Amino acid sequence: MADDTLTWMNELTAEMEERRKRVMRGGGEERIKKQHDAGKLTARERLEALLDKGSFVELGVFVEHLGVELMRGIDAPGEGVVTGYGTIKGRTVFVFSQDFTVLGGSLGKMHGQKIARVMDLAVKTGAPIIGLNDSAGARIQEGVDALSGYGEVFYRNALYSGVVPQISAILGPCAGGAVYSPALTDFVLMSRGTSYMFITGPEVIKSVTKEEVSFEALGGAEVHHRKSGVAHFEADGDQAVLELIRELLSYLPQSAKEKPPHKPTQDPDVRETPELNSIVHPDQRRPYPMLEVIRAIVDDKHFLEVQPEFAKNILCSFARLGGQPVGIVANNPRHLAGTINIDAADKAARFIRTCDCFNIPIVTLVDVTGFMPGVAQEHAGIIRHGAKMLYAYAEATVPKITLITRKSYGGAYLAMNSRDMGADVVLAWPTAAVAVMGAEGAASIIYRREIHNSPKPAAAKAAKIEEYKKRFDNPYWAAERGYIDDVIDPQDTRRQLIKHLRMLGHKTEARPFRKHDNIPL
Length: 521
Description:
Elements: H1 2-24, H2 29-37, H3 43-50, E1 57-59, E2 81-88, E3 91-98, H4 109-125, E4 129-133, H5 144-159, E5 166-170, E6 173-175, H6 180-183, E7 187-191, E8 196-198, H7 202-209, H8 215-219, H9 221-228, E9 233-235, H10 237-249, H11 290-297, E10 303-306, E11 314-321, E12 324-331, H12 342-357, E13 362-368, H13 375-380, H14 382-395, E14 400-409, H15 410-415, E15 425-428, E16 433-435, H16 439-446, H17 448-453, H18 457-472, H19 476-480, E17 486-487, H20 493-503
Parallel strand pairs: 3-4, 4-5, 5-7, 6-8, 7-9, 12-13, 13-14, 14-15, 14-16, 15-17
Antiparallel strand pairs: 1-2, 2-3, 10-11, 11-12
Helix pairs in contact: 4-5, 12-14, 16-18
């Protein structure tokens, strides 16, 4: 009897393993070869590269499609998506990886449910969700069932926003309604040359608008990284994108209930930054490299810039100070003089809110003359978009430190996290100036009558501008009124920032009760 039972169990086990092998083969050798020839890894190879070796545990291995009329007889191993969990640098993450070798990675009802299942588990256990997207879109054969599958994913993207980090990598096509799942997540990464995202493809655009455009020119990585702002990062090929995800996660907590992971560093807290003493030029119109300011002050001079090629007039980066992850928002004097336009306001507001979601302190470096002037900006809604940035800073309850390096004028002074907008600590270099506007404009208004009545108006105007500069183009007028906590030596910047961050380590801040906020979108 024991032998019969063992034989029976061996047969069942053999059947199980055969079924598993069929799923593991995906779309078969020919389609796998096509995937490799296109410069892409397979769904499973991507998970092997992303996760710690041997840590992946698959879920939903034997899920199959619904078998509706148009799908009968069609084999779709694993339903075209590999789902499960594993670790990255020892920390648990939940993952799904769409398999383009199986029906082009198209999403049907059960495909969507597999993704929804791991998303639910991620939230229950408090761990990030990472999606590796490579799909032809909704599975047309399943009709509205396929749309329902997308709905299950979109709903969870929104419901779990700010609960656990959600990261999307676009490693192949992502078109039509499929684009909205990545767009609802916290970060979007794209592989250069092998991925694209768009709502309507080149053929539809040609038939409707008569415009001719290639897949790459319409929705490639460079388009979304530089022009649309949809992508936060781009890299050459799957492997490089997956490495970026690993680095990005090192700055993020497992969930909103935790603080981001501290990373020990050999870079001394008290390291001086003498290079900053000569970085700001006396002529306020002369630009300087704000990225070098960031590099000088952060741990090991290393940071991860977010959307580096989009809205370059404002810089957003993850870095560490004394081992503590921080988000850095900084004006960039080398691009549009660091003014805030529509794209810059959107970019900064999104980054600020992401940091606040996940308990990452925000350090703001200020050198701004104002919001971008112009009819086009006004008509496109700079008021509405600029309000997003003001709102994001006011709403954020994480530690917030502001350092004014040079100019801080007008409404942009407030938009860059002034004391009144909730900054916990405001510092300034001796090169800083805080005012409603620059000296030339201010003097021309305040002393208009005296200049007009002078026998030598040009000389009188120049004298009044110099008088205004001496009185107001410095940080001390604002410091006298408590808007600036301290004026510091630039070479002491790193030590000061770390000291204040540590002081704010246990900061708590309450907000009035509300169902949810209503940011001006």
